[in-house]
Fold these 2 entries.
Entry 1:
Amino acid sequence: MERHESNSELPVERQHEDCLSRSTQERCPVNFSVAVVLPAAGSGERTGLSTPKQFCKILGRPLISYTIHAFERVCWIDSIVVVVAKESHDMMADILHKYNHTKVKLVEGGPTRHRSILNGLLAFSETGVGPKLQKPKVVIIHDAVRPFLEEDFLLKITLAAKERGASGAARPLVSTVVAATAGGYLDYCLERAKYRASETPQGFIYDIIYQAYQQCSEAEFKFGTECLDLALQHCGTSAQLIEGPPTLWKVTHKQDLASAEATIKESLSQSACIISGECTETHDLSTCMKSWLTAAGMRVDAIPNTERSMTLSASRNVIKLSVNSSDFAEIREIMKRCEESKDFLLYPVIILWVFLNVSDQVTLRQENDEASTIMNLAEEAKKINIFLYGVQLSYSKVSTQWERTVNRLCQLTMALIRDRNDAFTGQMLQA
């Protein structure tokens, strides 16, 4: 089977589709087998939470699912071994099923990080227990709580591991490292420019890292954490260090979960499609919104109803413009198309239903019916990970007044898309 390199500049939710759609004539530079081991058996004590951090939810989805998806969307990754504590096995199995993670094998973890990684490596070895996965040429070891992995950097790590035997991500030190005396006084400082912080992903020729673990001492298993050092000490393999991007940071403390959520929300708010009706007013509003949102940094496709199937799968944010709110069937059709997307479960989809009132004849009863309908639709939508919001505004032929209305609508649109707050779903907002 031929492999293809995806465009890492696309938003994360589109990279998988882009990779699958590449021409079969375009070969990926990875022409050998690659597997991943994700140690995730830790308790996450430093977060101060009762739930291990890898299972904490961001936008309703466990953190580890984001990390798994970062590897699953890469065409040339053959398999992923997730190592979890025995008591977390059933919960992890439920996550794999719910989010349709199909490349993953679960393995029981050990009492330390190195023990857990060895258990993951044994999933490919004949000396292990149970059915075996095909032994890879290169194995990637990565922290389960580093979800923001860029494919182009993963490729650098993989190719360097194949060439050198081992490779690893490194980052410049942020702070100077000091040594303290037994009494708590400064002893000496390290030259910060000479040192680096070791990060993951780390790549290895499988046979090298497996052999290194076979020679580990009990002290290394108990206290050690650095895989690159094992390859150096036991196999004489000096890893190539590659400076990683700032996105490689690790969720360690409770506040990091909020930072991770903000990062994911930002990536999901990069694009939107506007579906407009055929009347002059909705076309005018579509043009104004596209201009405003584009100036705010969002990539926007404005399309008529008849062409919506071409672009719905390319965005997690859909803005539907309706005149006097009669497009209930149209919203259901959009919901259906979003649900048919391969990864609709992975990230919440936003549908912003804009009711453009072009008549003074709309009654209070009609407005109440609209509010009731959108509330009911929103309850259905939330069950399939779609957040449905409603916004009402009145069309004005007075240019200055219309401009103010559109500005308010666009500001509200940006806020709803960026915040992705399910508390406002089903609400009828005013612009």
Note: The first strand starts at residue 34 and ends at 40.
Entry 2:
Amino acid sequence: MGWRVSTRSEKSTTTQDLFEGPTPRHSLLSGRYKQSFAYLTLRTRMPGIMQQIIMRLLSDVPDLVNTYGEEVRKDVRLIVDAIERLKMELNRDRQFLLFHGAEPDKVEWNAFITEMPRPKKSFFRACWLHAECYLYRRIFSFFENSRHLHKYDCFDHLKKEDLMLSEVAMGALARATRGLPKSFEVFSKLLRIDLWGTHFELQIGNFDFAEEDNKDDIDVLVKVADIDRILLVDDSTLIWNCLMKASKTSGKRIVDFICDNGGFEFFTDMLLLEYMVDNNLATQVRLHVKAIPWYISDVTRADIEWTIDFLTGHQDETLSAVGKKWAHLMKFEKIVIAPTSHFWTGPQPYFVMVESDIELYRLLTTSKLAIFKGDLNYRKLLGDYIWDSAEEFITCLRGFRPTNICALRTVKCEVVCGLPEGMADTLLRNDHNWMISGNYGVIQYTDSMKCSCALPGQDSDEKDSRMPGVHHQVPHSQRSTLTLQPQ
């Protein structure tokens, strides 16, 4: 199969220079601002990631030849050339290209690109979210349109290695989380462990326990990891109350979990979700994963299947038992993987979901709680927009309320809201890089206050000014960001 993706990219025609300063408040994140994390990512991090993909692919050639035969070398050569061209396009701030291959979501992507204002259709002038998502989507399109490597995950080795190198922390957590009682105290600890993922693994993996320390006690592990010291917002009580209120109702009580990373982080996700199902806080959990390899470490269906197989066959009896239990929960649909949606790997913020993917939106309305995990999900919830840090979480969602919403996020870029007044200024004085360090986290919640008028097709007299499509929640100066067209 030959390439159908265009190999030419029109040079950006805008004469507007990049700015030397940071991203201004009340602006979309963009590589236009040289002191922004967006600029740093596009200028150095993304080219480095693409080079690592090339190196990984070339190192896999002997194994690929054994699997597919000598013809696979042509695929490899074409993919490497395509990635090199993409690096050049990024470096020269070229215009985005349309997709013309076998991509199942090309209609949606091409409509989005076509509607973009021309001056903001290049890598450094576009919203950072748009540019970064476009880069990852283009990268996988090269594999997708090859003859043999259309399912190749160039990041799977990183996700697997992350899990295999975390065995000490996994073992400690597995033993400490068996048979836990139903209580807010336990639930809140599991929430915080899940939030801190990597931080927790590093702390536990490197800690020298004393003889009197019971490593099988969750309280000991929480104390060792010191997981409260940099939690800026903690709405754990509201989340618990939401689940407890739902548990008093009859029928199915679903929790949607919009996943972030694989590896050890997904292990901590599952510990939390297992606890919720075991203690009747939910009758079913739906896992929303990425349809394609995404942002290096994001979890896919294949990653989940591999993780459970790895744990099930582990020599540590506790980890093996955990893997078997999770397989059992999935077999009997206590935990399920939601239908694949390419919306999660699209460029759109979540407030447009009701118009761009109504079926996914309808699915979320059937749950009692949707938990959005990680930095990228948070950026999409807030639209990659620099809000005032003290702005309420519910306002920044811009009408996206299919159900009750929780965000578990370590802060890794300038997008943040819901902080106490003045906290951001205090943090900045003490730690100039606090917004990009990953050392601070938030557990945020908002009640849906939903009604059936959130969905298209309802009677006009049922409409509620709090629901998607109504713009007056946001100050007039910001309303241009609410349209479907990327700004």
Note: The chain is about 45% helix and 5% strand.
